[in-house]
Amino acid sequence: MKKAYIETYGCQMNISDSELMAGILAEQGFVSTDTPDDADVILVNTCAIRDHAEQRVIGRVGQLQQFRRGGAVVGVTGCMAQRMGESLLGRAGGVDLVMGPDAYRQLPQKLADVSARRTPPPALPLAHGTHAPQQPRGLTVLGFDPHENYEGVAAKRVSAVSAWVPIQRGCNYRCTYCIVPYVRGDEKNRDPRAILAEVRQLAADGVPEVTLLGQTVNSWEHGDWSFPRLLREVARVDGIRRVRFTSPHPNGFTRELVEVMAAEPAVCRQLHLPVQAGHDRTLKRMLRRYTVAEYLEKIEWVRAAMPGIALSTDVIVAFPGETEEEYEATLELMRHVRYDDAFLYRYSEREGTPATRLPRDQFVPEDIGQARLERLIETHRQIQSEIYHAEVGRVEEVLVEKEGRRGGVQGRTAGNKVVTFDGPASLIGTFAEVRLTGTSGSTFSGELVESAELAEMAA
Ligand code: SF4
Ligand code: F3S
Predict the structure, then answer these.
(1) 64 in contact with ligand 2, CB cutoff 6 A
(2) pLDDT tens-digit map of 178-231
(3) Can you give the three-state secondary structure of the chain, one letter per residue?
(4) pLDDT digit string (tens) for 226-273?
(5) Considering only CA atoms, which residue is closest to atom 2 of ligand 1?
(6) The domain that contains 61 carries what CATH number?
(7) Domain's final residue, options 334, 364, 390
(8) Does ligand 1 lie within 6 Å of residue 216's CB atom?
(9) Domain span holding position 47
(10) Which of 39, 44, 347, 366 is least enclosed by beta carbons within 10 angstroms?
């Protein structure tokens, strides 16, 4: 049996794509392995959002050369593969296959093509003065397919507790810093019947939590279906006890959506709403299509309808043209909203995106950008730590996901906060009442108060 090893970088969409690839390969008889050592196929599923992430992948492909020379096929897939295309074939010692996010159905065929083109190593030592035959250049499979939604592909999911359910691919926005629309193409929305069938199957398989995924997940629509309607239907599937969705765009985050979130008990009291910057001028240069006031109004709706909801966001600092005043406004917004969690980045220039055409003298020097980022992180960590410390003592319902790294088990609250506590592995996949007893400032430790699972076993 052939073994496939997939290493994933980037966002949840890429994690979900890796599960699709694993499913496509499993149908062809591949088994998944969690180490490249004994793999016949090694795929690195990549992200293009930041230069730093791409450099890391190039370095990683270099490390993987030992397996390639040992006979494994090495492929680079995903957003960076789509962005760099052919040029990746000769990088980091070479790769055999470069494949964009719309081409994964062709994976088995292209892997077979790569193998067929390979020259077997000579059985006898080569005569002096002759050279080993050159391996042919790798294959590229790039470009967009406006209809590819991977309908009918059974994902091979890593978790049996919480499932990613992609409902949309691509993006119709053109935020000026962002590479995603250029590597994933325009928005494509899945049929609601297929989505609901998938969620029902997950529930039947005993998966209690689903996360609906899309680049701008709330812009999903299909015929007369809107995202709030889909969310409501998913939340009402028997057996599904928790529903999350990520990432919504503030534009199109409607009152109707807030009402559905508040009305459906299965929808988690947690929201990731990317703000990116706290000043209207920055937002305008980013082409985010909302103002700070509009964003904050939506935060108010959400907090009024669901008091105590956990909020998280994404922020980019040092976007070209960002003045001290604009940066201070972002800090102020962070202090005002007080996010439970935040993903904070310094602007990374991405070739081909509109922001690269802003006047060069507007680009924020690296040292200033770094200092701004560090101060923002510090501000956020302080707020996050205050929020977490104030929650110690509460009893939360935790969905247990896996064994803890240092013993016990680990799970998440409805607010998406990580809790580790003492308990047997048999709790994995079940809900437990857990008292939060301590915090690192960004995760919790706890003690088990009640578990229906354990009570049943004891009875
Ligand atoms: Fe990128 Fe903007 Fe689309 Fe998000 S909404 S994926 S930031 S272009
Ligand atoms: Fe995700 Fe990175 Fe692609 S953030 S969509 S994997 S560019």
Answers:
(1) no
(2) 999 999 999 999 999 999 999 999 999 999 999 999 999 999 999 999 999 999
(3) CCEEEEEECCCHHHHHHHHHHHHHHHHCCCEECCCHHHCCEEEEEECCCCHHHHHHHHHHHHHHHHHHHCCCEEEEEEHHHHHHHHHHHHHHHCCCEEECCCCHHHHHHHHHHHHHHCCCCCCCCCCCCCCCCCCCCCEEECCCCCCCCCCCCCCCCCCCCEEEEECEECCCCCCCCCCHHHHHCCCEECCHHHHHHHHHHHHHCCCCEEEEECCCHHHCEECCEEHHHHHHHHHCCCCCCEEEEECCCCCCCCHHHHHHHHHCCCECCEEECCCECCCHHHHHHHCCCCCHHHHHHHHHHHHHHCCCCEEEEEEEECCCCCCHHHHHHHHHHHHHHCCCEEEEEECCCCCCCHHHHCCHHHCCCHHHHHHHHHHHHHHHHHHHHHHHHHHCCCEEEEEEEEECCCCCEEEECCCCCEEEECCCHHHCCCEEEEEEEEECCCCEEEEEEEEHHHHHHHC
(4) 999 999 999 999 999 999 999 999 999 999 999 999 999 999 999 999
(5) 175
(6) 3.40.50.12160
(7) 390
(8) yes
(9) 3-118+137-141
(10) 366
